[in-house]
Amino acid sequence: MPTTVQAHRPTGFPDGGRAGYTRIMQRVTIKRAHAQAMFAEDRKLCWCSTRDKETGKRNVWMSCDQGHWAGLGNDNHTIDKSGNVSPSVVCATKGCKFHSYVTLQGHRPEAPTKVTINGKAIDIYLKTMSYDQAMEYAGIVPAPGCSITYKSDQAQGILAPGDTVTVVDGMIINAMFTGNA
């Protein structure tokens, strides 16, 4: 079903881009694919997600009708609860004419886990946290003499180098450098 949108001319026009015009754009539903689809031959009009190894945050990728891949959900686009991407998606590949409103079929938003590290509330997208990641969030360079304790409704303990802990809402993590090796 076509969607009517109010668009604006680029700022290079004499009116500074303020005078709008109406344009009919088709909303395209993109099917979910496995992350390996990024490397497949037939990879047109699909989307997948990957996880950033450093932050644990989910990255969403989609391909246009020509098979060019681009990231979504960053500073340029948002994805609502229904999978609707806003604003419209324009393929950045030179010569590609893909420009459409997009809905990601089967998209489920990911909520961050709320934890407190050294008294500071932080949203974390990790399912588990390593000793080194906890030290990084606390702003401490891992070194002999560092100590990390954690407490949640489900568990409490000490996180040692090489250990990981499951991250849950309301978790409290305290990391410090004691200087004692």
How would you characterize this protein structure?
The chain folds into two domains: 2-104, no CATH class; 113-177, Beta-grasp domain (Ubiquitin-like (UB roll)), CATH 3.10.20. The protein starts with a strand and ends with a strand. The strands form three sheets. Strands 1, 2, 3, 4, 5, 6, 7 and 8 form an eight-stranded mixed beta sheet that branches. The protein has one helix at residues 131-138, and strands at residues 2-8, 20-32, 46-51, 58-63, 69-72, 78-79, 84-90, 99-104, 113-117, 120-124, 128-130, 146-151, 156-158, 164-166, 171-177. The protein is elongated and about 65 Å long. The model is unreliable at 1-13 (pLDDT under 50). With 181 residues, it is mainly beta.
Write the layout of secondary structure elements.
Layout: E1 2-8, E2 20-32, E3 46-51, E4 58-63, E5 69-72, E6 78-79, E7 84-90, E8 99-104, E9 113-117, E10 120-124, E11 128-130, H1 131-138, E12 146-151, E13 156-158, E14 164-166, E15 171-177
Parallel strand pairs: 2-3, 2-8, 9-15
Antiparallel strand pairs: 1-2, 3-4, 4-5, 6-7, 7-8, 9-10, 11-14, 12-13, 12-15
